[in-house]
Amino acid sequence: MLQPRIGQAFPTLRRVSVSVALWADALFMRGCLRVMIPVMLRRVAGPLFVVAGVMHFVAPRTYMEMMPRGLPAHRELVYASGAAEIAGGVGLMHAGTRRWAGWWLIATLIAVFPANVNMALNRDRFAPHVPGGERALIARLPLQLVLMAWVRAAARAG
pLDDT tens across 31-75, in order? Predict the structure, then answer.
């Protein structure tokens, strides 16, 4: 005579054991995510700002067009903001400069905010060139606050 498998003989026991395993796994993942998210924030934020800063030198004309017309020295300001993003991004990647770099990047995000406002106010000029069009131009404004919060979290991490 064949013996029934435990899962077949006791379906409730099988369901309970699966539930306990999933619950334990969820708790483990929650704990891991608490540790991993700040590390991931820091590790991604620095390189992202370095790449964004380099793009100011690779395609300066794109950034110059975003600037309000009333500001002088567009090219110089684009290069300065690119250099600021590179310096801040590199600073986020090193423990000794992380806190300082975070404040530096937050100040940089505040400094470039007028360009985002300019693009949102002149949607007819910029929308055809931005993926997402007008909605994306409007969304960029509160996104700056999200970026500032991300930088602050990355600056405090580890």
Answer: 655 666 667 777 899 999 999 999 999 999 988 988 898 989 999
Find how far residue 64's CA is from the centre of its chain.
Answer: 23
Cβ contacts of 112 within 8 Å, gap of 6 or more: 81
- CA 26, 32, 35, 39 torsion: positive or negative? negative
Q: Among 117, 91, 94, which residue's Cα sits nearest to residue 106?
A: 91
- Distance separating alpha carbons of residues 82 and 112, to the nearest angstrom: 10
Of 124, 126, 83, nearest to 105 (Cα)?
Answer: 83
Distance CA 25, CA 9 (A): 25
Q: Up-side HSE of residue 20: CA atoms within 13 Å toward CB?
A: 6
Of 92, 88, 94, the C-alpha closest to 107 is 88
* No. of helices (H) and no. of strands (E), the chain: 7, 0
